[in-house]
Amino acid sequence: MRKTERFTVNRANSLWQIYDTVPFWKVIRNFIVIQIARYTPFLEVKNWLYRNIIDMKIGETTSFALMVMPDIMFPERIKVGNNCVIGYNTTILTHEYLIKEYRLGEVHIGDEVMIGANSTILPGVTIGNGAIISAATLVHKDVPAGAFVGGNPMKIIYTKEEMERKNMINEE
């Protein structure tokens, strides 16, 4: 189960009430910063923008590929560990605006995590250290440390222990 906070709405669907939940100028600032970062090929510049302007927690030597889309509304709820690779066109969400409610949840990505291109990470998810996310995966629940996961819906392909056994066999 994802760890999200739920907030009910009484009027029109929750997206119509977006500026009751997040300030308009914050969204504009975040949108501009994220669009600049999405297109810049300079990894240090991206990380500086994310850390210093929109308050994401980004570890050392973490790499965001071109076109990665962090959450525009609540990027400060994203925490990425050291030495990760976030693949091309990946989306990291910390909010969900639904009909009768909206949900907010932090995304925690551990150290040395590899996320394949075109993946989507939903709010309230934790990805453990050393995990590998296959390309085009919908990460809708927590990923154990060291696991290799993929698909839609996401499934565990190999656990950490299975990956270690497989690597030991390949080294022999």
From TrEMBL:
SUPFAM superfamilies to which the protein is assigned, alphabetical: Trimeric LpxA-like enzymes
Residues making up the signal peptide according to the UniProt record: none
Molecular function via GO: transferase activity
CDD domains named in the record: LbH_MAT_like
Coiled-coil regions, chain positions: none
Protein name (record): Acetyltransferase
Source organism (scientific name): Oceanobacillus iheyensis (strain DSM 14371 / CIP 107618 / JCM 11309 / KCTC 3954 / HTE831)
